[in-house]
Amino acid sequence: MSRWIFALPVAALVLFGLLGAWRMLYPAKGDFERVSRAAPEFVFELREGGEISFAPPADGQPVAVNLFASWCAPCEAEHKYLMQLSQTHPEQLTGILYKDKPENGDAFLERLGNPFTQVALDPDGKGGLDFGLTGVPETFVISGEGEILLHIAGPLDETSLQKISEALGAPRS
Q1: pLDDT averaged over consecutive 10-residue blocks of the chain (173 residues)?
Q2: What is the DSSP letter of 134?
Q3: Which stretches within the chain are classed as H helix?
Q4: 11 occurs within a structural domain
Q5: The domain containing residue 158 runs over which residues?
Q6: What's 115's domain CATH number?
């Protein structure tokens, strides 16, 4: 009987370790989405000519930055939400064409509609890496002071659209 008393703390420790390992390998969605860091100082070339940086945004108001590509099927699936966002927040949505040819991006936006105020180019992916991109599509909301307020990994949906809208300064419904 006394041997079992010594085994209980060891068993509890093993169980606790397994639970911790499980949470690290399979985190609940949203566990690592809290962001409070500065936007990258990377300078992107604009498709229309010129340059843009988001540290801080040029006009000092919050912006949503969507990284997309013409070859990305989830980017096409989320496009209707970007079009909605551009209607409710004109002048606050910038696209970054990630690892794609400008002419392919132009054709993509011509076919689906262009929700972006500006389109920046990231042909080699270095700017996306500075953002912390894990794969397109991803959307970042950057405050007027240049802090990343929100990071949505993956395609947008109704819930993420509401979060972005709130972060851009829309009244809460």
Answers
A1: 75 84 70 66 95 88 96 97 96 97 98 97 95 94 93 95 89 39
A2: -
A3: 2-25, 73-88, 102-112, 126-131, 158-167
A4: no
A5: 33-167
A6: 3.40.30.10
Structure tokens belonging to residue 107: 């054709």
Which uninterrupted H or E stretch holds 28?
none
For the record, the structure tokens of 116 come out as: 């972006």
Sign of CA dihedral 146, 79, 128, 27: positive
Residue 21 belongs to a domain: no
Q: What is the pTM of this model?
A: 0.78
Q: Which of 80, 57, 77 is nearest to 69 (CA)?
A: 77
CA–CA separation, 130 and 124 (whole Å): 12
Angle formed at CA 38 by CA 127 and CA 106, multiple of 5 degrees: 35
Q: Which amino acid is at 126?
A: K
Number of domains in the chain: 1
- The Cα–Cα gap between 88 and 101 comes to 29
Residue 14 within a domain:
no
In a domain, 56, yes or no: yes
